[in-house]
Amino acid sequence: NPLASAGSDSPVPEQVDVCIIGSGLTGVSCAYHLAQLVESGAIGSMKLVILEARDFCEHLLSLVRRNGGQLVVGRFSKMHGLTMQYGAEEAIKSTAIEEYTVSEIRKIIRENGWEGDVDLVECRRVNLVFNPRDLGGIESDIAAARRAKVSGIDNVEVLTVEQAEKEYGAKYPGYRQPGNNLWPLKLVTKLFQHAQDPAASRNSTRSFPPAGFSSATSSSMDLALYTHTTVMSVIPSWIGDSNRAYDVQTTKGIIHADYVVHATNVYVSHLLPQFSEPENAVVPVRGQVIGTRASVPRGELWSDNFVGNAGFEYWFPRPCPSSERPLIILGGGRESAPWEYNVTDDSILDETVGKTLRGFLPAVYPNSFSKDTEPEFEWTGIMGFTPTKDPYVGLVSSSSARPSGEYVSVGYNGRGMARAFACAEAIAQMIVAKQNGKTWERPPWLPIWYLTEQTRTGL
Ligand SMILES: Cc1cc2nc3c(=O)[nH]c(=O)nc-3n(C[C@H](O)[C@H](O)[C@H](O)COP(=O)(O)OP(=O)(O)OC[C@H]3O[C@@H](n4cnc5c(N)ncnc54)[C@H](O)[C@@H]3O)c2cc1C
Question: Peptide bond before 236: cis, by omega within 30 degrees of 0?
Fold first, then answer.
């Protein structure tokens, strides 16, 4: 983590245009998109800081920093219910945003030649259905997605028990579609470096900038990162002598800012208590993960990534030579704990969850995993769940007693890799539109139900 403690010893600036709180995928993606908007000429210049209480990208992504994160479009999940609630045209946006995120991230990786830097593995995502009762629900979701002509739905293929056993050694039916794994911390590091200095972070000899972008340098983008800098409060600066809208009180002093982005995920309610109300809650849910070796070499095992047991378990191999036994990253086991809801302590492991995880792969693939193999790694992390199972994106609801330049993008329900980058783009666009005195227009891939009430009513 080359940026782990970047800026931790430096004093913070007194004045900035935008202050982003949190250096995870959301905060850094927001900085990346703002830098792109400056580079494209959509806005003249910008002084921007990212403030991080811990190490750079420390929280959730630290948990997956030893392994790859799954970057997969959920093409049909919840499609039936969403169609009933919002109509087919809006419902397909639940897939459109993930499709957009995955294709944009892959495009950026390709254009900059980062494939090796971020350990991108293009593979297939296999969804194994353990309980026959789940089949009906999945089939109606797929049927609804086909009726709505969800992009890519034709790439979803059904796996019979016989096929799954032949190809994977697992006796369960399932579904399969294209997928990707990558190393999240490495991606976020690259995105930050690119936002700060696009030319320096590029490996590719391919021509750049891409079509549609001016060749202006990013010299008008002034981006700095301050780790080990906790934000304690964000208050309107009506009373002070600053011309800026907000006083951001940090452990290193006050920063005056025009815009504030809360990219704090599961911690959001510390600064914005309204996100602890039941209808807007971001509920902390602990996830546990192990890294364990297969008992056969990679050449005799699958290289796809998997989800099973109604989404509770997910697993995938780390790349290695075909003669070596691969390390498999397996997360889940919450159903045996039970659920791990409202658990915020990521410093301890749950014994029951650990036992479930240890028994899982030998039970699903008896010929490729041994019950006697102890995991090489085991760790936990906290995910942010919401009542809608989708994130909150947009302006923070406020009374007329506060200025309206505070934004939030939090609560990805364990699917941040496929959504945070695009949600952060929407926030960057909202800021630039407001700064330019224009009305923000919702991108075609952004579901309306992701938007905060304040943003929805302003449309
Ligand atoms: C074990 C595990 C495995 C996962 N695997 C996957 C996967 O394979 N695919 C997928 O799509 N998703 C996965 N997820 C979910 C994904 O990691 C998250 O959705 C994503 O990381 C959220 O990013 P974020 O930037 O919004 O939040 P975070 O990464 O949590 O960043 C928020 C940051 O804000 C900082 N912060 C909070 N409060 C303050 C403050 N007051 N002052 C300063 N800084 C503050 C925190 O320290 C933190 O670094 C997984 C999650 C876990 C726990």
Answer: no
- Specify the residue with its C-alpha closest to ligand 1, atom 37: 264
Q: Which atom of ligand 1 is nearest to the CA of 58?
A: 49
Cβ proximity of 54 and 27 under 8 Å: no
Q: Is 457's pLDDT higher than 90? A: no
Rounded CA-CA distance 257/239 in Å is 14
How many domains, in total, are found in the chain? 1
Residue 415 CA, closest ligand 1 atom number:
11
ipTM (interface pTM): 0.98
Pocket residue to mutate for ligand 1, from 181, 264, 282, 427, most atoms within 8 A of Cβ: 264
> Closest Cα partner for 379 from 63, 60, 67?
63
Are β-strands 231-236 and 246-250 bridged in parallel, bridged antiparallel, or unpaired? Answer: antiparallel
pLDDT of 209: 41
Cα–Cα distance for residue pair 316/125, rounded to 1 Å: 9
CA distance 199 to 413: 34
CATH of residue 270's domain is 3.50.50.60
DSSP reduced 3-state for 144? helix
Residue 74 has pLDDT above 90, yes or no: no
Examine residue 67 and state whether it is found in any structural domain, yes or no. no
Span 163-198, pLDDT tens digits: 999 999 999 999 999 999 888 889 999 999 999 987
* Spacing, Cα 267 to ligand 1 middle (Å): 10
Q: Residues lining ligand 1, CB < 6 A?
A: 21-27, 51-54, 58-61, 63-64, 69-70, 230-231, 263-265, 267, 270-271, 287, 289, 331, 381-383, 412, 414-418, 420
Which residues span the domain enclosing 450? 15-61+185-280+389-457
